[in-house]
Automatic annotation (TrEMBL):
PANTHER family: ANAEROBIC RIBONUCLEOSIDE-TRIPHOSPHATE REDUCTASE-ACTIVATING PROTEIN (PTHR30352:SF2), PYRUVATE FORMATE-LYASE-ACTIVATING ENZYME (PTHR30352). Pfam families: Fer4_12 (PF13353). One of its GO terms (molecular function) is 4 iron, 4 sulfur cluster binding. Coiled coil: none annotated. Belongs to the organic radical-activating enzymes family. Keywords: 4Fe-4S, Iron, Iron-sulfur, Metal-binding, Oxidoreductase, S-adenosyl-L-methionine. This is Anaerobic ribonucleoside-triphosphate reductase-activating protein. NCBIfam families: NrdG (TIGR02491). It is an enzyme of class 1 (oxidoreductase). It comes from Virgibacillus pantothenticus. Activation of anaerobic ribonucleoside-triphosphate reductase under anaerobic conditions by generation of an organic free radical, using S-adenosylmethionine and reduced flavodoxin as cosubstrates to produce 5'-deoxy-adenosine. Its EC number is 1.97.1.-. It catalyses: glycyl-[protein] + reduced [flavodoxin] + S-adenosyl-L-methionine = glycin-2-yl radical-[protein] + semiquinone [flavodoxin] + 5'-deoxyadenosine + L-methionine + H(+). The keyword Iron applies.
Length: 156
């Protein structure tokens, strides 16, 4: 798959990961978390179809690193892995947000999701749980969500 559905690409974020970041919001999410801050992202048809190279061209900024968000970027893992691989080749640090846990992604054994994980430096995992919402947390919305340094998580 050489295209993905994208809701928007936001430049110069300081709340979606460490440092100055460009955030790619991908359409489509199966989790439908109660209290989601972006419920319009659930429907993949709400996004605009973009070629992988278009996404890279729009997201690539020498001053920012990258965050993959949504929706859930792992919902479109085949195309998003291609985007992440190319951005990684440009030396970008990549954060990704997902409603799945790292354990679920590993158990899914989906080749495209596993490939995408290979390009992610930091994974914020787990669904947003409204009853665990905590505004004091950095880079996540509820206490169950974890910030995982994938460079430490992977077996070297």
């Amino acid at each position: 798959m050489d295209t993905a559905r994208v809701l928007s690409i936001y430049h110069d974020s300081v709340v979606d990961g460490e440092g100055l970041r460009t955030v790619i919001f991908f359409a489509g999410c199966p989790h439908h978390c109660k209290g989601c801050h972006n419920p319009k992202s659930w429907n993949i048809r709400n996004g605009k179809e973009m070629h992988v190279q278009q996404i890279i061209d729009e997201a690539l900024n020498p001053l920012t690193d990258i965050t993959l968000s949504g929706g859930d970027p792992f919902y479109q893992a085949e195309a998003v892995a291609k985007v992440a691989k190319r951005l990684k080749e440009h030396g970008k640090n990549i954060w990704a947000y997902t409603g799945w846990t790292i354990e679920q992604l590993m158990e899914n054994n989906d080749a495209h999701q596993l490939e995408l994980l290979q390009y992610v430096d930091v994974l914020v995992d787990g669904p947003f749980i409204l009853s665990q919402r905590d505004l004091t947390l950095t880079f996540r919305g509820s206490r169950n969500q974890r910030i995982i340094d994938m460079n430490d998580y992977r077996i070297h």
